[in-house]
Fold these 4 entries.
Entry 1:
Amino acid sequence: MVFGLLSVIFVYMELTPELVDHLAHLSRLHFSDEAKKEIQEDLQKMVAFVEKLSEINTDGVAPMLHMGQVFNVLREDEVKGSIDRTTALKNAPGASDAFFRVPKVIKK
């Protein structure tokens, strides 16, 4: 369905040098005339590829969000022991009340 919609859009879209200039302006990029011609040719190839994809019969094929299977590779959370605040502050080079003291890093 998506490729069909893109195909309809691209059929009516002519890739002109003016369109390449407009895209370059929107992107805040500057290209030589030779580069613009090359970009126009590349865009035409991309549009042709999408048009070719729209010819594929996808009836009965479920839409995909990703090209492959995505699995959650994160481990399960486990409750583990940790040192208490008092022990952590004893190991610190400097402490003030319940906080670590660190050298000043912002000059004012």
Entry 2:
Amino acid sequence: MLKSRMTSLVSSSCVEIVTMSLYRNTVWLLKGLQEYTKGGYEAAARSFSEADLEVAVSGRSFIITGANSGIGKAAACEIAKRGGTVHLVCRNEDRAKEARKDVVEQSKNENVHVHLVDMSNPRKVWEFASGFSQNHNLHVLINNAGCMVNQRELTEDDLEKNFATNTLGRKVNSCFSDLTLVIWTYILTTALIPTLKKSENPRVITVSSGGMLVQKLNVEDLQFEKGSFDGTMAYAQNKRQQVIMTEQWAAQHKEVHFSSMHPGWADTPAVRSSMPDFYAKMKNKLRTEAQGADTVVWLAISDTASRQPSGLFFQDRKAVSTHLPLASSRTSPAEDQKLMSELEELAVKFKS
């Protein structure tokens, strides 16, 4: 009898999970078709204030990760055009040099610097942050780097690749993996917060994704060791982690303005390579790289953005909810804190 009841409860729970997942995915897709496309951007842009980006940022220093293409490169161009000192953090030397050349040509600003960092190695992330802090000031950190790995793979440190890049901060082969990116984001941000606090009006912007709306934080399986692996869902889970990290940092470090954002569905090299089927179906509706980068730039330089409360999630220059209606994706403060504690424990292991 007890075994029968337990089987019934497990079966019922599985049905609820599948049903909720289907609900979230359906609502998110409909939302995306309306808001995340080029048409969604153009509709939102009608209410933008041009004056928000009419800002000179000469003398301010910006780090942008994943800046050799896509949204990162587009953001670098816009910031450089306004006089900012831009530090491009990249892995591939040839692509980084080409990106710098393009940014300088478009902006007429020579204060664009390349930093080559092996983001597949968390120790190198710590080393970069330490060296940068000793030699440069920093006003704005833009955590942009990342992409999707479609099968579960481990780094040489036994970190799941997606997590290591999207959360802790790790780049593997030609692409950021999800766990690695979360670790990369955590390490780089944590290491640079003391430097940011020395500057006027410091900011941290993390490029997340609206895809995180389909996921509830799961602190019991950060490296996707349980069940079958789904790269798309792992990516969404890591983007949820980044949003929660932003909220937690905002609460802990009042001197720094933190924000996360969704760039919409943009036509970038990462989308073309990681999501070929999606790209084939949606390519005529995707945003340009500049449109995807618009809110990144707005958060990085505008006075209007800095007056927003710290820790919010933005889409098209507006703070938006981090949860879909009735989606049961909220977590407890204890779960959020557990995420931060586990990231700290992992990150410290790689600190020299």
Entry 3:
Amino acid sequence: MRAPWRKSRTASEADGVRRQRCYVDDKVSRVAWLNRSNIIFAGQDKWSLDPRVDLVTKGQLEYSLRIQKVDVYDEGTYTCSIQTKQKSKTSHIHLIVQAKDKQIADYKKRVKQLQEQVEQQLTRQEQDEAKILETEKRLLQEQLTAEKSLVAQLQEHLQQLNCEMEELKGKKEADMRGSTMEEVTDKPENGAELYSSREEKPIQAKQLEEDPHPVSLPHVSLMEKPVPARSEAEEEPESGSGRQWRRLLCC
């Protein structure tokens, strides 16, 4: 891997190791190395977690950054910030990393593989979503069918209840009509008797009006024995006491 740094006082390259130099004018200066707003070194303290990065100090005025096995991810701008009592200055070095042809082909192959994996994953997700939608649709259809069946059963049960209520109502009305007819058939007989008994009185009164001298019928006691009728030949002259006694009996 090549890093086309200009071989100058601030940058050098040797055996895959890239070195960025930074010099200070005063040993008491505060120095820091930054990479794309990330602090790599602050003084002698290392802030970066990358093990390929280390600090080179030669004497008291050099403050250089060294990167081993440079990768494309290391490309970018590096800044050396120097702050003194009198003034502050910064030096910027832009690192451009160019990969070899084989590495470029490997990257293209890797990108293609990633694209295929992404497409497969998207296709799988679409298929899964289609299956999920189909399953949900089938479940909803089954639920709707079950609800329709339940509604039909409830309607049939309600219809049966209505029929039973109508039958009970008809039986009740028939019983009421039967009891009413019995009362009606009983009342005319009693009424007829009463009316006939009441009619006799006007008839008797009318007869009395037509016949002002009614014939009084002899009162015959039930205890009396009937006297057999005698013929004229058998009749004998009665004495006065016998006639009187017979007259008393007749009266």
Entry 4:
Amino acid sequence: MPGTSERNGQLYTAGGRVLCVTALGASIESAQNQAYASTRRIRWTDAYYRNDIGYRALQN
């Protein structure tokens, strides 16, 4: 798989996007809150997630 490597039977990322979180809600703000709640439950070393989820939709 491009962007990954295998060592000792374990799959490792070589960087870039490795996971996608989606969420639904009664409003855009509700969906945004659900998405951020989900990202907070993901824990691994040096994890990073975007902090601009849904910002364009909320500007209108």
